[in-house]
Amino acid sequence: MKAKHLLITLGLTGLLSLSLSAAAELVVGVSVSATGPAAALGAPQRNAASIMPTTIAGEPVKVIILDDGSDPNVASRNARNLVESQADVILGGSTVSNALAITEIAVEAKTPLIGMSPAKVAGATKAQWVFLVAQDNTLMAAALIEHMVAKGVKRLGVIGFADPYGDDWLKAVQDSAQQHDIALTTIEKYNRSDTSVNSQVVKLIASRPDAVLILASGTPAALPHIALSERGFTGQIYQTHGAAGAEFLKAGGKAVEGGVFVIGPLLINDLLPEEAATKATATAFIQSYSDAFGPTSISTFAGHVYDAWALLEQAVPQAKAAGEPGTEAFRVALRDALEKTTEVKGVHGVYNMSATDHFGHDERARYVVQVKNGAFELVE
Questions:
Q1: In sequence order, what DSSP letters do the residues of 287-298 get, joined into one string?
Q2: What kind of architecture, by CATH, is found in domain 26-135+282-364?
């Protein structure tokens, strides 16, 4: 899939509309957190959406990009606007909370949603409309717990977002830790917009853990990491795939040296062997993104948009057999086709969707890395 620049116009409403022609088009609606506390996630996603190919499976594409400002209420309004704009599929939101807000509107309108965050939706009626390109927290948590076991961690302290992202990660960690006889010494929470976690960190250290796991995303994930370092915590500090990125490394500086992350393959593409399943795809995307936004601009979150496009490339031809874009018949058929996509090579893994798995990832979607000299290095 070769990215091409699209003509972008910015209206007073903050809506970006990217279009090839006035003819019938496939309308892709995008709602991401380009500003606000989750901007480290959403801004790269906005950028990626602006350089995606101008066609999908031969169909001309109109892309509408909206910024939710990291606010679930705005994300919900954006979804409503996208539905009213006849979106055939919606991509978003950057955070789990925002993705869940969008889900309500997408389900009501029978419009497929490709989530940019690992938002698990409760209830089969709603979940059938939601597909995820961010890796499942359960898959990623298992990799971190395996590393802890190998390093002899027996007591684990946890601090995470007081939101659905933190909650889902916590459940995944609790389940995996219990299976490996790792005790959780304390569980602390904080908000994405908080500027201090000193009281929580004092409690964490007082619980005498061997290691601490931070369940957060974007640059706010650096806050407890820095606080732990400043208070002299010498145990291993772990982070999730939601934190990994250049913005986090910049925010954390020397304080995050030695931190261990579970991460998707995109950010460490240059460290992977040529035979890696995502190597060729990621190399091409990195080149396109870097050409548009600079040689050090690549982001794991931008890759989520690419992978959504890759899924659509396989699904759209099947949906076209049932109806034209802009119709409910097409949207329903697109949902059905997305659920049947197989061996789709993205930049974050190889997707095999099914009725019981709307993540579609396997172990090819995860790697354990450590921060050394301000960069990620593979952990053997």
A1: HHHHHHH-TT--
A2: 3-Layer(aba) Sandwich (3.40)
Rounded Cα gap, residues 243 and 110, in angstroms: 32
4 pLDDT higher than 70: no
Kindly state which CATH superfamily the domain 137-263 is placed in: Response regulator (3.40.50.2300)
> pLDDT tens digits for 84-102?
999 999 999 999 999 999 9
Domain 26-135+282-364 and domain 137-263 have a common topology: yes
Task: Find the length of the chain.
Answer: 380
| Residue 234 to residue 211: CA distance in whole angstroms | 8
Give pTM, 2 decimals.
0.89
DSSP H helices, 220-347, are 222-230, 246-252, 279-293, 300-320, 328-338
Of the candidates 132, 194, 129, 134, the residue with the CA atom closest to the CA atom of residue 159: 194
Cα(201)–Cα(189) distance, rounded to whole angstroms?
10
Domain boundaries, the chain: 26-135+282-364, 137-263
Q: Residue 255 to residues 112, 226, 230, 343, 358: CA-CA distances in angstroms?
A: 41, 5, 8, 39, 36
